[in-house]
Specification:
Number of helices of chain A: 3
Oligomer: heterodimer
CATH superfamily of the domain at 5-259 in chain B: Amidase signature (AS) domain
Radius of gyration of chain A: 23 Å
Strand content of chain B: 5-15%
CATH architecture of the domain at 5-259 in chain B: Alpha-Beta Complex
Order of helices and strands of chain B: HHEHEHEHEHEEHEHEHHHHEHHEEH
Strand order of the largest sheet of chain B: 1-3-2-4-6-5-10-11-9-7-8
Shape of chain B: globular
Helix content of chain A: 25-40%
Number of strands of chain B: 11
Structural class of chain B: alpha/beta
Number of strands of chain A: 2
Largest interface: A-B, 49 and 71 residues
CATH class of the domain at 10-59 in chain A: Mainly Alpha
CATH superfamily of the domain at 10-59 in chain A: Glu-tRNAGln amidotransferase C subunit, N-terminal domain
Strand order of the largest sheet of chain A: 1-2
CATH architecture of the domain at 10-59 in chain A: Orthogonal Bundle
Chain lengths: 112, 492
Amino acid sequence: MVAVRPPRTALWKGLNLALSREQVQHIARLARLGLTDEDCDRFGDQLSVILDYFERLKQVDTEGLPPTAHTLALHNVMRADSAEPSSAQQEILANAPLREGDYFRVKAILEE
Amino acid sequence: MRSDLHRLTLHEAADLLRKREVSSVELTRAAFERIGALDTRINAFLTLTEEAALEQARSADERLALGDGGPLLGVPGAIKDVLSTKGVRTTCGSRILEPYVPPYDATVIERLKQAGFVMLGKTNMDEFAMGSSGENSAFGPTANPWALDRVPGGSSAGSAAAVAAGMAYYALGTDTGGSIRQPASLSGVVGLKPTYGRVSRYGLVAFASSLDQVGPFARSVRDAALVFQTIAGHDPRDSTSAPLDVPDIAASLGGDLRGLRIGVPQEYFVEGMDDSVRKAVTGAINQMKALGAEVDWEVSLPSTPHAVAVYYIIAPSEASANLARYDGVKYGYAYTDGGSMWEDMEKTRQHGFGDEVKRRIMLGTYALSAGYYDAYYLKAQKVRTLIRREFEGAFEKYDVLACPVSPTPAFKIGEKADDPLQMYLSDVCTIPVNIAGLPGISVPCGFAQADDGARLPIGVQIIAKPFDEATLFRVAHAYEQSTDWHKEMPNL
């Protein structure tokens, strides 16, 4: 059943941009985030308000400006390609929710 | 044994240890007694490590007996629960990491241990450091020691509250958009965000990797400098760690501010700012002038109003990538009752993450998704360049900038919980510093009298050039020593 919207909440009013439930579900799927229908509506409204606020950046003239990914003058930091001790296998596996011998166990990834 | 041990600053406690007037074991026992008496009301700690702490204290006492006397040796401190501690549960304030026990120490923990660390425990925080109030912890909010119905600020809520309440002599926090400076301001303690690259992020559970930094909370500027010096410096295990030496800042503190040029950026005195904040911060800057500094009150950094939008695109984008690792396979909480691996993964993340983390993962995923990348992420990175360049221009004329930390003093728990954008906007004075990778410090500069009678601390923010923490501390220390604000403690 499809709920009757908009407006969904008071936050919704006056926005230029509003995410549909389908868009919210699409984003959640990309992020592998399970959401209830109630979550979709609530987050959809809140994210719409925030995305609407981001619209202000369109007015900023950034012609010819390079992007800043980080603020350090460091590039491609390398170390010698020599073998060094790594973490102990059993210590790493100790945190596994499910394990089988020395492996992490998951359900089938490839479906038949 | 004296009953006022909790009132000592870190360096005062270290002096008593060196003079053998008190032992590390006594200091540690007293700290746990105070935690036991107060923390059911404050909720600053998620994990206490009393047995291990007493063992560390005994070995610190042995080192002290041999004449060893480093500035942190044997003085108990607390650690935000986002820093990996070998063998000690590290939750990041999240259900998804509730059972996680790191197999290694963060570099900052290793360095503290070399300096004679006594770890009291791990402190409460907004989940994955996402929040400005401490209310986003999966394990309940932390109370402000000055007014228990108010927030201590966030995300390093427990670290700020533990130091403010005299439960720890110092604490480590992390600051991605203000998460050390804002809670320091709201809780009435000193809090430093070092220059990006100054302190190793190895073992810091990642939120936004181009913005995250580790830094100290303490009850005096000198204390913060001592902790900073201990944890700072190049680390080959963090490729964004700067290969630069760290000067002995604590040894050079003292003197007035003659010859120092201070700029006051107008854009930081935002509309809606509390009058008490404006007054306290203006008073602090006037005091710096009285100490000999030249003050220019008319500085403009015109891109400042865009910083919140830039941050809330960049930080969630980086977070959405960093938090992809929580899949219920390698560690932490796992949902295993689904019909397929994908269902298990989605349900693990649904039940494991709280609302604010979900919002930010979705914001970041959207901003990075096909068709929106240029409009959001790339645009934000370009405006980031603009904000950086304005700071660079300002630092050609001024040694430091001075401004507020937070537009308001501590607000009531629950007051902003339903309106994420309003909560984001309260970060306006701290965010630009992270965007530009600069060092910033919050120093107590007065109190606000709230309508309900609460007396709430206010901090002034000082910002310096990249890697010039020495000047930052010099200004902060001169100001602090000319006032009594930092000597006040809450009545608990």
